[in-house]
Specification:
- This protein is an alpha/beta fold.
- The protein is built from ten helices and ten strands.
- The strands form two sheets. It has a six-stranded mixed β-sheet, with helices on both faces.
- Helix 4 packs parallel to helix 6.
Amino acid sequence: MIVVKDLRKTFKLSRQQRREIKVEPGSKGDGTVDAVAGVSFTCRPGRIFSLLGPNGAGKTTTLRMIATLLKPSSGSIEVAGIDVVKNPQEVRRRLGFLTGTTKLYDRLNANELVKYYADLHGMERSTFDKRKEELFTLLGMNDFAKRRIGKLSTGMRQKVSIVRTMIHDPEIIVFDEPTVGLDVVTAKNIIDLIRRCKEQGKTVIFSTHIMGEVSLLSDDMAIIHNGKLVFSGAYADFARQMKGRSIEEEFIRLLEGAPQ
């Protein structure tokens, strides 16, 4: 489970940023900007939670705080009952974080890179071999398992990133735009994997710009805009109260009606 309460993250703007950005949502007179401003939600095991919002809304900042890569300015986050600030190492042991900004080691092959991350998590060899075979087969990776990362296509690299994220079988998984830029077949493999995580009772939170993925996967969802929540609840409730003719139209309607 992930429990986020009154989460805030404030960044200090540089002089150049203050000159270039005359009116910035969330900016204050002290030269700072609230990237996340009082966000609260809960992600439960066995359910898929979608975090949505336009570029710059605060989604990735929120996910990075959950993954212990950024410290909150205030508020709290608990992952599997563990405070992310007080015990980040234990949170990382239980969590997998997939983001497109994670770099891979081009000189290693897929087998070597995944083994490296398994070693970081202290996995036993027999457990690693079984888990790797399961994931490589599921994602169709055996044909390029011995090829250097630098020689792989975008879709192949994304598959390696997914296995790196999930090799230690985490109970909490954070997917930050997992299908962006991928072909239809690879994207479907990832969607199927997310569903599989739900069936295994894992806690899953993911962000996406693809509204079709929201309707396919979401049990619960939140929409964030200018660092603030404009909707939080079950996807069924969101669909029930829609005034737009589609998810896209309703998403835009909520953003347009949100306070700046």
